[in-house]
## 1
Amino acid sequence: MIHSYLQVWLHIVWRTHDSERLLYNEKAIQIRQHIIDYAQKSNIHIESINVQPEHIHTLINFPSDKMIKDVVKTLKGESSHYINANNLCPKAFSWARGYGAFSLGHSQLDTVKNYISNQSEHHKRRSFTEEWNIILKRYGLQDENR
């Protein structure tokens, strides 16, 4: 085979330290744009992103030459640096340790993009913690009794 074809879509979620609700309105818009710009410079294709007060959802078409942990570390580290350098929070900002990375097929793209873009509406009905537990159960990473 002369050509190799690769398409790996990941829905990646991470939260603020202690799930503090710090990223609102103009701050969220600035952070979103900074992450998109930085990702482009780093050859990371973000299809969809939504910054919520205490967490971020991204949909990434994963490049073949990068590892998941390195991409997440890059995006979290750069955005944290940007937030602190631009005094977007009243105190030193940091993300919580860890993240969730969930694979999806091409047929699920529109559903996940819609889910990500409608986070504000979604969180009127369900907290981030409730949402997180549902995602973990859906992917078989948490038992139904928790």
## 2
Amino acid sequence: MYHYGTLIKKSMLIISSREFRQNQKEYFEKVDKGEHIIVQRGKNKAYALTPISADDMYFNSEMVKKIKQSILEVQQGEVQTISTPDEISDLLGL
């Protein structure tokens, strides 16, 4: 089997974006089996392939509830305008 890239660890492979495009199915299957795949795009950009499950924070019911509550608060005018880093620190009690 042809492998293009650099094997960093037993479970991590860095490949080029071209290699990923040409063999997407192969790399998705590797990720499904627990292997870490990093897709290098140009000299300074890289992306990790990660499977998404029902328990991921951005897609679970708890996060959806939080988003809906936040939208409701904005609609009701319950917002605080922050324009400086100091105001963020004050708000967080830092």
## 3
Amino acid sequence: MLPAMASSGSQQTVIDVEALIVGGGLVGLTLASALAGAGLPVAVVDRADPATTVAPEFDGRATAVANGSVRLLRGIGLWDAVAPHASAINDIRVSDGDSLLFLHYDHREIGDEPLGQIIENRHLRVAMLDHVRGLEALEFLAPMEITEITRGANGVVADLADGRRIRARLLLACDGRNSGIREAAGIGVTRLPYNQTSIVCAVFHDRPHNNVAHERFLPGGPFAILPMADVDGRHRSAIVWSDRSELTPAVMALDEASFVREMAPRFGDILGELELAGPRWSHPLALSHAQTYIGQRLALVGDAAHAIHPIAGQGLNMGIRDIAALAEVIIDARRLGRDIGTPDLLADYERWRRFDNMVLAVVTDVITRLFSNDVAPLRTVRSLGLGTVNRVPPLRRTFMRHATGTVGDLPRLVRGEAL
């Protein structure tokens, strides 16, 4: 850990670092691991108690981690702890309701590696918390409140609720889609509601999933079945069930047996009898995109900069690509002895990530609105589109590579290289 020292005259304890990360969730801890692992002094401040964030009842979501993101986790030393809890996605099957036309991705078409992995968020958190506590260049302060942050031409100062102060060259906002840091900086956000809410849970089923993920487009919204690791010999899958927001409260209020009966027709009979494997959660869905990712000695990362519909399972992966690009820009500058909070350096990060994120946000928005209805002409167009892509191997392989997060101007960590 970094040494704390008393400033002259006031006896106030001051922690001097290069970067201050606000938010100790998946994005914040991954970014901290990348930077501190490369030797950059970093402080992470989070208001949540880490002991509560790793409890099973805190967050029942499982995340689709694309192959490019797996490379980053491996490169910063996190993957070995996560791998035992992961389940590979070897195939993806996309269908539109009851249409006989579908789109099928088989990972063997583009290489030997899986398309991605499904990992419970709590296992990611446990691995990250264990990892950051062992990094000498990192000060992890949680639970902790920040009472005031001042950004100036020469640096950032953050006063903590316990009386300590952090001084840094750069403030990194990893505090989620409702980012207080972004709001305090006066950065506007474009928001588009979907009138959809996602219901998230895990289910046991009789038959093995064979590492196949399913995305079924239904009139109320997409229904995703994601292969999870078995537990005590029982087969599991994660469910992300998006439906009209006015319907979801009644669904959430059902008892377990009634909930399973309501879900079963959407699930189908491919995996046999179903049983809930834990609690249910619901999350309202909307697209949001910050009007800029940067400010004076400030960068927005992950959901603080952008949040999209879970239809393609790319939310965290977008944030991880942000991390890879930002970490590369920062570490390369620091190795040259540069100030990591200068406007030109931050502009490099925004240019690298903003267009890519905007394109993906627009694509997922169009797909969501195109498929979340039951208009007959659109159903025909959708089915023909899926069938066409499925019958054209080069086009299908292009879509598969985009799904793995390994297309475009990739940072070193996403390419599987050292930072």
